[in-house]
């Protein structure tokens, strides 16, 4: 593969101190001398915006017969478009993917070489024969030049020319024969070699997506995919924790929703909010959407978007009271939420934390389960570290469910720790009826402290539990009615 000086410099920096790749290349290089060049080409094919190949005449025999078919299999695999989408122009995902591919193929190199090169040693034999052919042709050329410059016929020189010509022809025929054997083996084992390489490409795609997901979820600069000490440390930290990996699957996407919400949200004077959303209210539709009605060719597209509530429209203006103060997230960590529900809830809580940090608000995450069992993590504006977020994300209490404990802690935060006009998010998957006196006390506190409570009920597959949240929640979102991303989108639009 061709590469620019900048790409070569980037690859050198990525390879620096990577002893793992050194070991892989040294071990595989004993069987295939072109393997180090192959691993470099793999990175280039993933990273480059416009991958280009060198001319065949500039390639070694091993590169033509082994490296080139491997690259062709890669570009034809089902996962290659995914790889390009994740890796193109992003050095760390591209390098991690290339390293994963190299590790996968080096472990099965014997099988791969037999599938691509035919009989064992066939490519090495061909390489020697082609070199011998070139040497014989060079010798013949030199003798012919010598013969042309001779003043008279030289029988000995003429005999040497004939012998050299025969020798060159013999080497050419031998090389052609072995070359045909190698090509026949490649054609015969096309399916097997393609399947092996496809598995390696799939593993590389998973690796690249993992890098993108982790950095997108936890990095302070999610768009920065360079190999920095901070990114390397973050990848190592998150990979060591199954909990953090599970949260990453949601958090990266939720951060994108938040970023999009910030780009789309506009404030008008005081007390009004204005943003974009999807729906089918023609009175609030964007003019660019209505323009599709003017052309017969786009009319069906407009009707389809209308039917599926996908028309871009202005979000209705409303008073800005939600999210105007500090944020408290009460997160149910009872045993029934263990696993996917816990990861989703943590991702929502961390998205709320990012909203608070972006606007200089205080944030508190109240983990709760059974009676009296809770843990509070407080994040003050500009004073929280990534490690504190990671530790909070890894916390899981387990046990039963009690609503009084987290609500009492939220009230304490407002009265004693200065959380003003708080916006409380209450995330739970279960029922827990509050005593009537507790509900009355809570309602008086809401009036006095001017806080609102948004309930998020994780009731997918078990609808009908919202009555336990109605006494103290001004708004309730249910996973039995909305997807996770839709709920997060609504929460973000209400707070940016």
Topology diagram in text:
Elements: H1 5-15, H2 19-29, H3 35-47, H4 61-76, H5 80-87, H6 91-107, H7 109-117, H8 122-149, H9 155-188, H10 190-218, H11 229-239, H12 242-264, E1 266-268, E2 272-274, E3 276-279, H13 287-290, H14 299-307, E4 311-314, E5 327-332, H15 340-358, E6 363-368, E7 374-379, H16 386-394, H17 404-416, E8 423-428, H18 436-449, E9 452-457, E10 475-478, H19 484-493
Helix pairs in contact: 2-6, 3-4, 3-6, 4-8, 5-10, 6-10, 7-9, 7-10, 8-9, 10-11, 10-12, 12-15, 12-19, 17-18
Protein name: VWFA domain-containing protein
Pfam families: VWA_2
Domain VWFA: 324-493
Summarize the structure.
The chain has helices spanning 5-15, 19-29, 35-47, 61-76, 80-87, 91-107, 109-117, 122-149, 155-188, 190-218, 229-239, 242-264, 287-290, 299-307, 340-358, 386-394, 404-416, 436-449, 484-493, and strands spanning 266-268, 272-274, 276-279, 311-314, 327-332, 363-368, 374-379, 423-428, 452-457, 475-478.
CATH class of the largest domain: Alpha Beta
Question: What is the total domain count?
Answer: 3
Structural class by secondary-structure content: alpha/beta
CATH architecture of the largest domain: 3-Layer(aba) Sandwich
- The string of secondary-structure elements, in order, is HHHHHHHHHHHHEEEHHEEHEEHHEHEEH
Q: Which spans have pLDDT < 50 for at least 5 consecutive residues?
A: 267-273, 318-323
Average pLDDT level: 84
Number of strands: 10
CATH superfamily of the largest domain: von Willebrand factor, type A domain
Q: What is the number of helices?
A: 19
Task: Fill in the CATH topology of the largest domain.
Answer: Rossmann fold
Major beta-sheet overview: 6 strands, mixed
DSSP helix fraction: 55-70%
Percent of residues in beta strands? 5-15%
Pfam families: VWA_2
Domain VWFA: 324-493
Protein name: VWFA domain-containing protein
InterPro entries: VWF_A
